[in-house]
Amino acid sequence: MKLKDLNTNHKRPLTGKEYLTSLLDDRQIYICGERIKDITIHPAFRNSIASIAQLYDALHSSENHDILCWDTDTNNGGYTHKFFRFATSSDEIRQQRDAIAEWSRYSYGWMGRTPDYKAAFCCALGAYPEFYGSFADNAKTWYKHIQESCSYFSHAIANPPIDRHNPTSHLIKIEKETDAGVIVSGAKGMATNSALAHYNFIVGTARDTENSPDFTFMFIVPMNADGAKLISRTSYELAASVTSSPFDSPLSSRFDENDAILIMDNVFIPWENILIYREEGSSRSWAVQSGFARLFPLQACVRFAVKLDFITGLLQKSLECTGVADFRGVQSDLGEVVAWRNLFWSLTDAMWAEAQPWENGAYLPNSQASQTYHVMAPMAYNKIKKIIETNVTSGLIYLPSSVRDIKNKELNPYIEKYVRGSNGIEYIERIKILKLMWDAIGSEFGGRHELYEINYAGSKDSVRLQCLRHAYSSGNMMKMDNLVEQCLSDYNMSGWTKPHLHNNKDINFLDHLLK
To answer: What is the pTM (predicted TM-score) of this model?
Structure first.
């Protein structure tokens, strides 16, 4: 796949139809032991792909244009999604936040790795190409290309969790260098939704590799590159299509973001696709210093907030179905869920309102709010899921197996009588609502989402250490320490040291008693 192949009209993003066509590029996607011939019609992926295509079509709707789109800054006279062009003010970050939210509502917050997720990578390339040194022109070229077409990027950064006693045995490694580029082999883990993307960007560092430069790089690879293979996990969409129905599995049957193992078997990477090469320092510090680490949490937090909007509304409906919505304790728990929802929307407000100027006129979202999102989101999701389980309780499983039971003329009268909701809620509405809730938190799809949310930004320790390191590097920890020192200096063993305060020697009972 060459840069020019995605879109022949460089003044606008891809349409949904063009996106579908762009996936017919002979990519190697495997599932259930077979290579997929046409991923756009394969039942393991087709509805998820259609959901992404809908996002591209939204960019061409006059109804959504002002919310979603800006003019490009590449001098092509076109337009793009707002998060595919770096912001030059805090208010522009606010507008990016709103555009991300608008797109996220198309999947009710359940698709996190949509094209705007890695638009953060695009913005980082455009705002600070100088970071990439001798490859700065590559960064500029890719910024222009990604912005003008809204190309769909995924990433594969995590190393496979295997052979930790021999960490270099499976890592992607530079095998050979040629005049035209390099050849690499190895594997990366958790290439989420890469099967639906146009490109992947791969980052390697020399950590745990005895500082060998053969493992130190950053490059872009098209998903149809010779030797690139994706081995997909189980498809929840396929399982829903084979055994269920949209009525029974309304989320998993259309919003499954398949996670895959990415194999690189002697893949050729041309020099124009390389951004970092054999520089241990820059690849290790890339995420923070390039700006990427402060850009992608904006999309992540907004998407999470939209998801909590959906979950909060669905919980309210579920409680009404089960007849417990007016119980004081239940209302208290629902209020806590609302508070969690409010927290994450407030963090998105802080991200734009406290944005800071950066390189080349660009602005970056507030890093404290971003790091707080990373720490609090896993805690929130675990707590919210528990609240749902302990308040909706058996309502989550007091359900017929399938919509076919309702369509069965013999069973339907019993279901209508014994599976109806409280407060006059008819049985079909009750079943529909509670099956939606089960798909959200109880199905295999729901279980994967819990795993996704609690591990989104890395391990529990890592996200907390990020907060701690920022507190030190920003000077905030020193300010907090100084605040304590100031308090400690307000008094000593003889009493107050501040002239505006009154010492108590005139009224202290023990002083008088011991005289």
So the answer is: 0.92
